[in-house]
Specification:
Elements lengths: L1 E5 L11 H6 L2 H6 L4 E7 L2 H6 L4 E8 L2 E10 L2 E7 L1 H4 L17 H16 L11 E5 L5 H9 L5 E6 L7 E3 L19 E2 L2 E3 H8 L2 E4 L2 H6 L8 H9 L3 E3 L26 H15 L9 E9 L5 H14 L3 E9 L1 H13 L4 E5 L3 H10 L2 E4 L9 H7 L3 E5 L2 H6 L12 E3 L4 H16 L1 H13 L4 H12 L1
The chain binds adenosine-5'-diphosphate and alpha-D-glucopyranose.
The site of alpha-D-glucopyranose has 14 residues, from helix 1.
């Protein structure tokens, strides 16, 4: 099968969240099925710096202006790169400027992504002109299925994956002509949403099949999805909506071969390995060197989605109550949350460490050195850090939602527990989950059983690749 993914991030070339991890792993797993898999991406400045040598495939005028579509092989994967410096040659975050303001031309920056993806899928590359499936990810690529429909390119089947229904890509209706889309598409049975153009809705409406990144989230979004639930119910009743869990890349997240760790380890020597990593982490953050403390870690964007606000409240409660608890955070996001976590660290210098920023290496050291990884999200389409936690024997403490509910078996709820699960999205429920974890921590034999079970879980990408293959077929 010839498969073209369209997306706006790919790890390690450019990453702001889990989407990049998926694009950095799924295509490679699909290649192992013998498929010819390629990815189309904007040629952002960061990608240009890492991949300076490319071959020109075709030149075009598309939404947003003139572009050259280039091709390069990257670690054995074919990449189409949309070269339009006036749109993509900017450093930093791909979506907004340093002051968190969305770029005013995002409508055409990502309009062009969908357009160019549709062009390649419908045969614009003479050397790869039979694409079977165009697989578009998130709102940034949401227009790709709409262009194919507008052009009548029915032979290419389209799959749209929503990694997070909260991001909708909404733009003023007047941009329809900038996007080179026919006005007939601007209607409720189309890509219009509450008086605006919605790139997300374009993907949900025009794709042949919709997937999201866990079975539970696939159900949840038919109940509540910021106004998209009606459409999703309809597509579900046609058998056009499914949930496929993400995996974890063994090449990047693997405690036995992880060079970022102070000590690598496997199931058999997890106790010693984790103790060494924990001591190193405590030292790095200037915390009390206390092997008996239960060290909770979190690696996350700091937003309301991630429950960071009620986590703070719960931490103030528990840290005051229980001197044997420690907490380390690596994250960035909303300025008020960044500041509030820094204040918490000032309040508990020996028990709380906070690093505001984005740091891949440190992320490994947190996940290797923690006892518990926190993911108290209000909603979570899949979530990846709890999967890393399972692999590293760092027991996840998560809220029962989306992919978290599908991947962590809660202590007290399952005979095969791999972590701790709570229900209500508030500080009280989370504080109780901390109590449960502290109890389990005090029973070291029990803890070790859970840790072994956690490390034995299999969330490999090959399984996911197999499920996508069935969906394409
Ligand atoms: P989301 O995509 O909603 O942010 P996921 O759990 O799917 O959530 O993926 C987040 C990814 O980003 C993980 O790979 C996580 O390790 C990484 N990450 C998040 N924040 C940071 C950070 N501050 N430093 C390093 N990695 C981070
Ligand atoms: C989104 C979701 C996250 C998911 C990731 C990759 O960013 O918020 O839950 O793991 O996409 O699919």
């Amino acid at each position: 099968m010839n498969i073209l993914h369209a997306a706006s991030e790919l790890y390690p070339l450019l990453k702001t969240g889990g989407l990049a991890d998926v694009l950095g792993a799924l295509p490679f797993a699909q290649q192992q099925n013998g498929d010819d898999v390629r990815v189309i991406l904007p040629y952002y400045r960061q990608i240009r710096e890492q991949i300076p040598f490319t071959a020109e495939v075709f030149r075009c005028d598309g939404p947003g202006g003139y572009a050259v579509i280039r091709f390069a092989e990257y670690r054995g994967l074919g990449l189409y790169l949309i070269d339009a410096p006036h749109l993509y040659d900017r450093g930093g975050n791909p979506y907004h400027d340093g002051g968190y303001r969305d770029y005013p031309d995002n409508v055409v920056r990502f309009g062009l992504l969908g357009w160019a993806a549709a062009a390649v899928a419908s045969g614009a590359d003479p050397f790869w002109n039979r694409v079977d499936v165009l697989h578009a990810h998130d709102w940034q690529a949401g227009l790709a299925p709409a262009y194919l429909k507008a052009w009548g390119a029915w032979q290419v089947k389209t799959v749209f994956t929503t990694h997070n229904i909260a991001y909708q890509g909404l733009f003023d209706a007047r941009h329809m002509s900038d996007l080179w889309l026919p006005w007939e598409m601007y209607r409720p049975e189309g890509l219009e949403f509450r008086g605006q153009i919605s790139f997300l809705k374009a993907g949900l409406y025009y794709a042949d099949h919709i997937t999201t990144v866990s079975p539970t989230y696939a159900r949840e979004i038919t109940v509540s999805a910021y106004g998209m639930e009606g459409l999703l119910q309809q597509r579900q009743s046609q058998g056009r909506l499914s949930g496929i869990l993400n995996g974890v890349g063994d090449n990047i997240w693997h405690p036995a071969g992880d060079h970022e760790l102070a000590a690598s380890y496997g199931i058999d020597n997890a106790a010693e390995g984790k103790a060494a990593n924990k001591a190193a982490l405590q030292q790095h953050f200037g915390l009390k060197n206390d092997p008996a403390a239960m060290l909770c870690v979190m690696v996350s964007r700091l937003t309301e989605q991630k429950g960071a606000d009620f986590l703070l409240e719960a931490l103030y409660l528990k840290l005051a109550e229980d001197p044997s608890m420690q907490f380390v955070l690596l994250g960035s996001g909303a300025p008020w949350l960044e500041q509030a976590f820094n204040e918490l660290a000032q309040h508990y210098p020996e028990r709380v460490g906070v690093h505001i920023g984005y740091d891949e290496q440190l992320a490994h050291r947190l996940i290797g050195g923690g006892d518990v990884i926190l993911v108290p999200s209000r909603f979570e389409p899949c979530g990846l850090t709890q999967l890393y936690g399972l692999k590293y024997g760092t027991l996840p403490l998560v809220r029962r939602t989306g992919g978290l509910a599908d991947t962590v078996a809660g202590f007290g709820e399952s005979g095969e527990a791999t972590g701790f699960v709570f229900g209500a999205p508030d500080a009280q429920a989370l504080a109780e989950a901390f109590n449960t974890a502290l109890y389990a921590w005090s029973e070291q034999e029990l803890w070790e059983q859970m840790r072994t079970r956690a490390m034995q879980q299999d969330f490999g990408w090959l399984k996911a690749a197999q499920a996508y293959r069935q969906c394409y077929q």
